[in-house]
């Protein structure tokens, strides 16, 4: 019932936790990310078990181009920072700033995704297709699962931006923005591991 | 309790039961099983005794409205039933760990041991003796008392190599993933082996035999299996045999290596692993060597559904001739 | 509260009510019906297996069909019967036990049910489209790969379980949040009833175990549908990797199943002994410890895989350790009964029968933990006996106990005690007859999952006894169904506390409870909240709030369509290789798959864009309910 009492009234400092629904959503999302951790943990394990099975395909150290990946990493890390700014703006009730930071986050995410698609396209032309070897299958599955998460995040945050524009910042939209930012941080952390385990370790064999 | 263990020990066929071990490896495993069963029987007796006492003593009488004392717990009791299980587990855990390491000894480099490479196929077993350069199928001939060092792998799906009365099982994995185990059979005899991992429709029919013979017989067998084998004397049967059988199978120095080697099939214990050769058939799956071979070749799918051989297009005369020829392919190594 | 009247929400009735409900009590009933249905299907498969094995060299079913039966029996029973029936009890009981009006995410709760149902239906459609999965419920590669399982059977397994698994995962998250955030005032963690505790730990296990299965199934799906090389040795893949992934999920799954049964037994034994659960804190601690250790022991399913002596020794010892917290539980139950006043209702018969039965399954578990001995037991009928003792003797007896115990709360009607006791004795006798003998079959050398066995091996009599037992279990199940049917014609007159010795919050409200459960949120003053009030001479709970309008979530059809969308998508991707191209280079199967996924995304979009304001149940209605039923 409290969902409505705040709707048009004064927003508290942390609007995402103002209602029980909001608190449930934030807690539920933390738990969901716990499950996602296991998901990516399993994908990492599979990749680590199979990464030396390159067969006829190009091995990791010949394939990967670190500068490209470094740029992608920089984009994604920056987008994580901008999503922090977005949540900060939300806590000080600056809807416009919140929306703008989210837009920047999405744009950076799109940049990352574009680079990743280019990277995959390039690899396939180098003879590193999805079906080439156990290494390639587990590589595309791990990095692709992450990429799919980024793509989903971009769609989700874009939809949120529209909702924030229409509905403004309320105790209903605030938890959504908050968990979307949690999700985005999570994706970012996963990428740090991918960068280390897949690319850096791939380079040093 | 000791009585129970004795009863268990008396159970089952000598050549098949894990409770009637015929070699040191199965013996060691049975020892651990006996220890575990004894400890567990103590647990069961205690729990059953308390259960029965409680059920009878504290059942509610009709019309009973009293409220029993609400007990929160008892630290003393709770410590007792935490510590005693831990002690029991230590009693079981220590020999378990010792045995794990003992049974993982590697004999693959041991010159005293007989080296055997086991390759499992849907649904038959290939046995290669790398030191002698010979391959056979379905029947593992071993010298009595010698340590047999097994390197096990699979040519297709997962299978598991199990000779219950001689040793526990080891999975056969595909790829370069080779597993090792060892066992020995101090007594002469034929022991039944089984596939213990679901591998397709005929998984349950993927039996094999281990035949333990004295050392001189084993040496004679090694020599005999390498000798050249003559083709069927009837030219028509010989032609059919060469074109329709030897494309996959091998006899002596002839034929392909892909499918079970048939050298000496007439003196094996069984055809296809499960049609038991005997002159005194009692069950459905028993018959003379000739009858079994005939039955198998006539329609292998009837015997082992889903096997790779499939029905071979043979005339009645060719079928009889080949069955007869194969039934007479004997290795005379036993005295 | 001006808004309460501005959002008029339609309250459906009839079939639309069931399709759109977000009420945990109704979703619990839906889970029970669906899980019960799949239990019957799995049971029928079990009977066919036992008929095939009742004599040597039988050909009642073909070898192919037999492998389909054993695969579908295992998969159905674990994922589509046992788990949903547990979710039925959890849904029906957990919110009531913590004094909540609903779960944290009613919409997600409904979504969890519909995805499970559509996943389960997809899996079973395989029977009618040319072959069910036949590589075992473990689906070990490479047998489960396309080279050796070329038809669509395993595709159904992969996609059906994937979809059902999503439902389970979100259900788990839902219960975790519900239990953490929605407890009534005074209901601290250490005052929660043990069933709620076990539901909590089980949900945590679901959360951390199911994603591993998700990845495993996705990888197997990629191998099968898109020629990836995860488990195919010829492409550099590793068959043992599948075993690891499967069991990292699979072992916790065993505890996911058994822990709620432990909870049920704790509630039932305590209630019918009229006694507080002995050693409550140690029971909670043991539950947590079992859940934790459950993640450390997966490789004991792989002792014969060739992991080496160090791994085998470590996993042996870790596995044995689980016996300690389990033993604590067993003795706590026995000492709950000790000094009590034990009433043998049907529910309690199942609970009391559970204790020694589960101990028998437990001790064989410790025996299996000794790796060298396991080389002999592994994949023999000894293992079949062991896990049926744990799952049927543990979980199913627990579910039967729970169903008889909470039936009046769920449906407002008492089950017939005479028929109930008949159910117990036939099922219980049949169970021991079926499975006790199988220990010996295994020790005498009978491998599991075999289509038939040769005559003269000494297996004949024992297999026949086992089959007779299975028939008795079938009879027991029929008696239970009969009981359900008979009772449904009886008046709906169960009192709020039908066993008269109820100790927990669910017995303080009408049977069945009104939509909003608690007219006033109760104030909890101690463990066994209701019992405490009774002993203090109160007739009910002290309310924590005045009577006022209650906010309820709106019903929604979206979860149903999301399940349907996943079902369609699964079909499309599965048959993409067969259905040809829609236009050059683009398979029509993919088009169908994408349409299915679009339905899912559209529903998510709608859910996100249109805020659910819910509706209010007004004071007058609540007072009317109270007047009518109190």
Overview of the molecule:
The complex is a heterotrimer of chains A (205), B (335) and C (630). Chain A is mostly helical and 205 residues long. Chain A has a single domain (15-52, 59-203), classed as Four Helix Bundle (Hemerythrin (Met), subunit A) (Up-down Bundle). Chain A contains 7 helices and no strands. Chain A has helices at 2-5, 20-50, 60-63, 66-91, 95-125, 134-167, 173-203. In chain A, α2 (20-50) runs antiparallel to α6 (134-167), α4 (66-91) packs antiparallel against α5 and α4 packs antiparallel against α7 (173-203). The longest helix of chain A is centred in the C-terminal third of the chain and has 34 residues, at 134-167. The relative contact order of chain A is 0.19. Chain B has 3 domains: 2-58 and 71-103, Helix Hairpins, CATH 1.10.287; 114-225, Cupredoxins -  blue copper proteins (Immunoglobulin-like, Sandwich); 235-327, Cupredoxins -  blue copper proteins (Immunoglobulin-like), CATH 2.60.40.420. Chain B has helices at residues 2-9, 24-57, 75-103, 215-225, 235-244, 289-298, 300-303, 316-327, and strands at 114-121, 124-129, 134-137, 139-143, 148-154, 159-163, 167-172, 179-183, 189-195, 208-213, 250-251, 254-255, 270-271, 275-277, 286-287. A 5-stranded mixed sheet of chain B has the order 3-2-1-5-8. A 5-stranded mixed sheet of chain B has the order 4-10-9-6-7. Chain B has a 3-stranded mixed sheet with strand order 13-14-15. The longest helix of chain B has 34 residues, at 24-57. Chain B is elongated. Chain B is α+β, with helices and mostly antiparallel strands and 335 residues long. Chain C has a single domain (3-556, 612-629), classed as Up-down Bundle (Cytochrome C Oxidase, Chain A), CATH 1.20.210.10. In chain C, the strands form 3 sheets. In chain C, strands 1-2 form a two-stranded antiparallel ribbon. Chain C has a two-stranded antiparallel sheet with strand order 3-6. The model of chain C is unreliable at 1-6 (pLDDT under 50). In chain C, β4 and β5 form a beta hairpin. The radius of gyration of chain C is 25 Å and the shape is globular. Chain C is mostly helical. Classes of the chains: A mainly alpha (205), B alpha+beta (335), C mainly alpha (630). The interface between B and C is large, with 98 and 92 residues.
